[in-house]
Each structure stands twice: as C-alpha cells, then as structure tokens.
Design goal:
Immunoglobulin-like, Oxidized Rhodanese, domain 1, 22 strands
C-alpha cells in the first residue's frame, strides 16, 4: 500500500491562493437607511472604493427592487478612488426593507464588483409616539409592553409596564383589540417598527412604538420601578450593540478627547462620520447643531453625566453613550477588520445573466 501523502501547510496555502487568484473579489456591504415614512422619499449614497491597482469602468448598477432608483453613477473609477452613487428610495406600503443592488463593471461579459444590501423599515408616522403623547386622550388606557430582556426589565422599567417579548406577543390573539405601545432600549427603532408591521398584519389593530424607548421615559422624568433610574445608564450602549445598530440606520459619532489627536477607526458599514472635539462645550455645540442620532465616546464616563445634565431636552433624545469609551470601540473595529480581511470578499466569477434577484421592501414582498 502506498503511503498517504501529507500536504504541508505552506503548500495548501499556496494552492488556496492560486485558486482564489483565478477569480475576482466581490465585496458585500450593508447600507442602512433607517426608518422611512410611507409618504417619504429618502436620498442615500452607495459608497464604492476601487481597491485594485487599475482603473475600473462601472457599466451599470442594478436594483432588484423598483422602489430604489439609481440617480447617476460614474463610468470610470481610478485606482484607489472612492465614489458615491446617489440613489432614492420610496415605498407606500409598510414593512421591512431588504433590497439588493449589484455593481457591474466592464469585463468579460459583466463583472460583479460589489453587492450592496439596503436595509431599514417603512412605517406609518402614527406608529411612533412620544412620552408626552402617551398622556393625550388618544392614547388613554394604552398598555405599555416592555420587549427588553428580563434582566433589563428587572433593573429599570416604566411603572405599570408589562414584560413580553415580541415572539410571545405574537401568540396573544386575545390582545388583538387592545391599545398597545411597545418599548425597548430605544436606540434602534428599525427592529421594533418592523415587528409592529408584522403584528398589524396578523390582527393587532392598535399597536405602536414608544419613540426613544426606556431612555426617553427616564429622560422625561416619568415614574419607574426597579433598582436603577439613571438615564445615562439607559442610554449607554455596548460596542457590539452599536455596531449592529449601525447596519440599520445612519449614525454620527462624537469622540470627546482632550488632546483631540487620536484617530478612531470606523467600520466599513458606517454611514456617518466621527467628529473629534477637545471639550464639553465643543461637544454640546456639535450635538445641538443638527437633528441627528449621535453616539458619544469618552474615556471619562463623567463626561456622559455632564452632557446628560447640560444638553437641551430636544438634543438629548438623540444622544447615546458608548460603554468603555473609544478603547473598546477601537478593539472591536480591529477584530472586525481582521475578520473582514479573510471573509468579507466573496470570490466568484459570475455573468450578468447569472445574478439571482433578491431582497424586497414594504411594497415589494
């Protein structure tokens, strides 16, 4: 019997690189557009970077949903350049958004450069209510349903709210006729509004979402039960929570750093930017300048408490804080970049006629 040949690690690695080299790289990217009103048109950009050493000719951008229109695209992308491709989204029916777009380049047939997935949710404006609106006659008698994890509910909860996951609520046909207001952490409204669309479709007649969740409830000074009543704690996110929220909606990031020299990395799915400021006054100027959703990072958590006290209420509702500060974020981004180097690029050869359609939105199931 012939001995079994043992392949060295180096040989196997070279063989893998040879096979990979026979195909081009297809980049996958998620573009979050957040919550879209049913009467709203949303402008957004697809961002593509030509990471090769040669120019690429962009032949076409294909949308697999009629609700997305590509407004324009450059024909030639020089090596190392990053381009923005403007698009517009509009749908009239509520529901979750998951739309695929393919970037095709000139080549042998049509070369697939990138696949981008646009995500978010289409929702009626009336589905979102504020803490102040809960006191109006229209919402009198509404039941507050807290959909957070049991440990979060035990720590702090709105007075007279009841704990129930969305999955459990879906089985409660006896509640179809009740007036319900769902609440969660509040920093990522996409998932809960998508759940509301699904629950309304199966028979829940009057179900809405509390805008801003438990953080908004605490910031408004409403009564709570539990062992903590800190609005800073309620508005503080872990790095993985925020990284997940980034894929759903546009965010801005503010790095409060006394030296104002540290560069903080940004994940490739991030739709916003990082603003670095040197003191609290500069931070407050940025956070009150525009109606945007902000994540604040600081190595000194006392900065979070001061911002929470000193920001105007209108601005504070859009501000969240990063647990662990920029050091935790930097560590997470390094890990994600390391993983992306090995797995983000899908290696395959495809022709334009071989692309499967996929995705949809509120109007296109």
């Amino acid at each position: 019997m012939k001995p079994i040949m043992r392949l060295s690690f180096t040989f196997v690695l070279k063989l893998m690189l040879l096979v990979v080299g026979l195909a081009h790289a297809v980049r996958a990217q998620t573009v979050g557009i957040g919550v879209v009103d049913t009467t709203e048109e949303v402008l957004f950009d697809l961002t593509y970077t030509n990471a090769t050493k040669a120019p690429r000719v962009l032949r076409e951008v294909i949308s697999h949903c009629a609700c997305v229109t590509v407004l324009d695209h450059p024909e030639r992308i020089v090596a190392g350049a990053t381009v923005n491709i403007p698009c517009v989204y509009r749908a009239e029916k509520p529901g979750r958004i998951a739309i695929r777009l393919d970037l095709l380049a000139e080549g042998q047939g049509a070369e697939l450069l990138a696949t981008m997935t646009v995500v978010g949710v289409v929702a009626e404006k009336s589905w979102r209510v504020t803490v102040e609106e809960l006191a109006t006659p229209d919402l009198e008698g509404a039941v507050l349903v807290d959909t957070r994890a049991p440990e979060a509910f035990a720590t702090v909860r709105a007075a007279r709210s009841i704990p129930m996951t969305v999955a459990s609520l879906n089985r409660r046909t006896d509640l179809h006729g009740r007036r319900l207001v769902l609440m969660d952490e509040g920093y990522d409204p996409v998932e809960l509004l998508a759940a509301v669309a699904e629950l309304r479709a199966v028979g829940f007649q009057d179900i809405r979402v509390l805008d801003g969740g438990i953080a908004a409830w605490l910031r408004a000074g409403r009564p709570v039960d539990g062992v903590s009543a800190s609005s800073v704690a309620a508005a503080t996110l872990g790095a993985t929570q925020f990284a997940r929220a980034q894929t759903q909606s546009p965010w801005e990031m503010l790095h409060l750093h006394a030296a104002a020299t540290t560069a903080v990395p940004v994940t490739h799915t991030h739709a916003g930017r990082i603003v670095t400021v040197a003191n609290l006054e500069q931070a407050k100027a940025q956070l009150t300048a525009a109606d945007r959703r902000w994540l604040v990072m600081s190595a000194d958590t006392n900065d979070y408490a001061r911002l929470e006290r000193e920001l105007p209420a209108a601005a504070r509702g859009n501000v969240y804080y990063l647990a662990g500060g920029p050091e935790v974020w930097t560590s997470l981004m390094r890990q994600r970049r390391s993983l992306a180097d090995g797995s983000r690029e899908l290696r395959q050869n495809r022709s334009a006629t071989a692309f499967p359609t996929g995705g949809g939105c509120g109007s296109c199931p």
